[in-house]
User: What shape does this take?
Amino acid sequence: MTKEEAEGKRIDYRKCAAAGGILAVLLLMLLSFLAGGREEEGQSVMQKAEEVKPRKEETADEEAMTESPAEQGEEARELPRVREVEKEAVGIDVSRFQEEIDWPQVAEAGIEFAMIRIGCRGSVSGAIVEDDKARANLQGAADSGIYAGAYFFSTAVNEAEVREEAEWVCEFLREYPIVYPVVYNCEGFQDESSRQYGMTAEERTELAKIFLEQVEEAGYRGMFYASAGELKDGLCWNTEELEGQYKIWVAYYPEEYSGEEGPAYEGKYDMWQYTDEGVVPGIRTVVDRNVAYFGYELF
Assistant: This one.
């Protein structure tokens, strides 16, 4: 091989090596491009998924606003299995106005039942408001062996509102062992400032019946509360109609209470609120005292 031929071959080898290097570089660039494309494609898919899925905190906020207490993890308590018995039982009715109550001391004083206000609808605003002592009172009474009932102060002016009240009451009571009745309480409607002012006895009675029917469908025992003066001769309510369907809780305050005579009221009644100035150990304020002409036994 001549010198020129050998030199030519070395040039050919260099060209081949250079071409191979260029091919390798191009191959690496191609692979990098393809990998990058796949990565960008993957990022695009993830981005689309995030756009479809709500943000976690937004979902939590919506759930907090829309879930009922039961859906938020509070389980409904099964209603106690009870039978009604003939007896006289002594009790009280309380609300936030009785402040903090020492329920064990109340039980030691011989109180057998407590009717507890759980809420009201504002007589002017129309908003439903929870009694801020209701939960403590319901739990305190139950823990002390005192049978609890409940009442709601209604100012409903139409069927939609009274159904809303009944639904609110039933939902609120889900967590508590209610033994005594759930009561429809409606007062102050003769005051010109009341949103119920001008309603007829028939209209108010119909709303009371809707409320009580709804709570009984939920498994509670319904009862209607009013003063003896409002009930007498059907002055403010269709008294006979209510008496024929529900227990009646009448308010009448004699000058003295002996426990031997009932209220000066000739209509039907099952519970008597005989004073709003009662004194009971464990309660710092005066309190309404009651006697019920029925009781309950668990079974």
The first helix runs from residue 3 to 52.
